[in-house]
Amino acid sequence: MPTLKSLRAQAQRAEPFACLTCYDATTARLLMRAGVHLLLVGDTAAEVILGFTRTIDMPLDIAVALTAAVKRGAPDCVVMADMPFMSYHTTDAEAIRNAGRFLVEGHADIVKLEADASFAPLIAQMVRAGIPICGHIGSRPQRAAITSGYVSAGKSTDDADQILRDAIALEQAGCSMLLIEAVPETLTAAVLKATTIPVVGIGAGNACHAQVLVLQDLLGMTDNPPRFAQPAAQLGKAIEDAGKTWVTTVAARKVGLPANE
C-alpha cells in the first residue's frame, strides 16, 4: 500500500511512480486495481466533470466531496486533493482551515496548491498544523486569466531561475512533494538536482520521479488533448458507440433478456 513515505523512498531509489487524476469512487477503484500509486483529485474536474471552460470555477465544497469519494473508492492509493482558486488566497487562517477540510472531510493524504516562493510562509503554517503539502510550480493554470490562457513556463532565463527558486523555497517551507508543469526538461533537471523531495511532472520531461495526466486525456475522452498526453485507449469513441447501440436497442424494443413468466 503506497504512502507518502513509501513514495519518497521509491523516488530515492529512482523508481518512478504513476499518478492520474480521478474524480469518482468507481474509477478510483479500477485505477487502484491497476496499480496507480497516486490519485490527484484535480481542479480539472471543473472542466471534465462540471463542464466549465476554466479550472478556476471549481467549487470548494464539491472538491472536498469528490476527494472523499476517490478515497473511499481507492483506500490503498495515496490521494492528493487540489485546492481550488481563491480557497487559499485571502487570509492564512481561511487557507489553513480549507486545507484542513481536505484531510478531515475529504480524507486526503496530501493537499496541493499552486504556489511560488511567496507562498512559503503560508505553507510552513499548513505543515506546522499537520497538513502534508505538494507545491505546484511552473505553469499554473489558476493564473490563466493573467497569461490569457494555459501557457508553458520557464522558457526565459529569468522565468526559469524564478521557478528554481520557487522549488527550493517550497521544499524549505516543508512541502512533502512538488508538481512541475509544462517547463523545459533542462529546468526540470535543475529542480531535481536542487531538491530532495519527490517531483511529479506533467509536460516536463521524463526525468521526474512521477508522471501525472488528466485521466480523460489518457483514455481518449477529450477532443483536444495537450501535446504531451498520449492516449492509452479510445474510450470516448467506445462510449459513443455504446450509446448508439443503446438507442438502437431501445428503438427495436430488444432491451434485456425475456422476463420469466
Q: Your description of this structure?
A:
The chain has helices spanning 4-12, 25-34, 45-48, 60-73, 92-104, 120-128, 144-147, 157-173, 185-194, 215-218, 235-251; strands at residues 17-21, 38-41, 78-82, 110-114, 133-138, 177-181, 199-202, 210-213. The protein has 261 residues and is of the alpha/beta class. It has a single domain, classed as Phosphoenolpyruvate-binding domains (TIM Barrel). Helix 9 links the parallel strand 6 and strand 7. The chain is globular and about 65 Å long.
Strand order in the largest sheet: 1-2-3-4-5-6-7-8
Instruction: Estimate percent helicity.
Output: 40-55%
CATH superfamily: Phosphoenolpyruvate-binding domains
What is the ordering of alpha helices and beta strands? HEHEHHEHEHEHHEHEEHH
Let me know the number of strands: 8
Low-confidence stretches: none
| Total count of domains | 1
* Distance linking N and C termini: 49 Å
User: What's the number of helices?
Assistant: 11
Largest sheet: 8 strands, parallel, barrel
At CATH's second level, what is the architecture?
Alpha-Beta Barrel
- CA-based gyration radius: 20 Å
- CATH topology category name: TIM Barrel
- Which structural class should the secondary elements be placed in? alpha/beta
Taking all residues together, what is the mean pLDDT? Answer: 96
Binned strand content: 5-15%
- C-alpha geometry: globular
CATH class: Alpha Beta
